[in-house]
Amino acid sequence: MAVGFNQALIYNLKKTYLYKLLFLFLIGVVGIISSCKKEEQITEEFGYHYLLLDSGTVNIYRFDSIAFDDNKESIDTFNYYLKEVYSGYLINQNNEKIQIIERLVSKNDTNNWIQRESAFSELKLKTYERIDQNQRRIKLVFPLKQNAIWNGNAYNDLGKINYLLSPVFDKKVYSGLTFNNVIEVQEANQVNFIETLKEKSAYSKNVGLVYYESTKLSTQSNKTAGYSLKLTLISQSR
């Protein structure tokens, strides 16, 4: 009887143990499914709050540039204002929601705005992409991670180029203006004896793009050709 009792006890213990394992396994599966569902949602933790893409948002940037002409050996400066209006959405052939960004320029920041070619942007689960002059670039990847590297030209024919994400800066000053909670994306950084290629975008929390700079210079034969430009946000309204 004792042997039979022990065998029955062992059997019941094993059965209970198996039920516990099954219960823990089911909890784990539910947890995995739950986390997957959370990853599919657009949340602030991903870093989307470094973009402001609401329809009706109007950004005005000051545009400052220097042009170098190696033939004339001259240097010219250009200054004007760029207005970007987030005017609505369209649906493309892939049933994707594309934001329309109307662009206008002016010699001052109040009057006589002249329409220019529109740009477009698309916020996906893991990327923010912008289309300028029919060239799509991956401007940000989510979730935002310090020192993340990605090919910004993955969706165009301009050749591979690695973008690099900076850590978060409490404050940054661009063209004399101070912005809080800023991340920078290095989009090009090549300097040698014959050329200088630099490009950078900066985004501020709950504001979006606040600064952009691009320098493309050829320095062959002791002459300089190309340009350097800066775009700084000076006004935002919704």
What can you tell me about this protein's structure?
By secondary structure, this protein is an alpha+beta fold. The protein folds into 2 domains: 40 residues; 141 residues, no CATH class. The protein is 16% helix and 53% strand. It is built from 1 helix and 13 strands. Strands 1, 2, 3, 4, 5, 6, 7, 8, 9, 10, 11, 12 and 13 form a 13-stranded antiparallel β-sheet that branches. A hairpin with a 4-residue loop joins strand 1 and strand 2. The longest helix is centred in the N-terminal third of the chain and has 38 residues. The protein starts with a helix and ends with a strand. The N terminus is likely disordered.
Would you summarize the structure shown here?
The protein is α+β, with helices and mostly antiparallel strands. It is built from one helix and 13 strands.
